[in-house]
Amino acid sequence: MEKKKNGYFEEALSDFTHDAASGGAIRHMVDLGYTTKQIMEHLDFPTPRERVEQTILKYMLKTGLLLNEMPLPETAFERTVLTSVTPGRLSSCLAERIQRNGEENSYLACPFGTIRRDREIRLGRMLSCLTSRERDYLTGIPWEMQMMYHRLNSRMREIGMQLALHTDVEWNFCFLKSQEILSISRADEK
Length: 190
Description:
By secondary structure, the protein is α+β, with helices and mostly antiparallel strands. It has helices spanning 2-31, 36-42, 49-63, 87-101, 112-118, 120-127, 132-139, 154-166, and strands at residues 66-67, 78-82, 106-110, 148-151, 171-175, 180-184.
């Protein structure tokens, strides 16, 4: 029993030390849009990458930047399928829906955790249309092994557009307020 208490104490002390030394800085850099790699380079105290990633994930979930699941079942959403996708058309469709719903209610469905774990090569091909900084951003998030949802801030909107325009994966942009899913798939065009 005493050993168990010491383990809890050591873990709590470790968490407190991490938060005091790096946690606040990591959360601040997430708010500034830094990638995990950039955060690692800017930390004053050496922190294991896994610890940085877990702090990032926890903070993104807490602030709603990432969601583990949609607040409503998918059946509650009306699905709109966008065909003949052009950059201008996709941009205006997203802008209009984000304007109507607000950024805080607009998300991109992200399958990266499920792909990352079992098909590393497929993920690399999928992300090849992105800049190295955009790839670093996505691969630095410790995605859970399920579909997750990333808020459509300006960075994720640009990433989502590139993925929707240049990959044969079906991408779903989810808008909570209007309960709409905008679905883009270029698989039929190829």
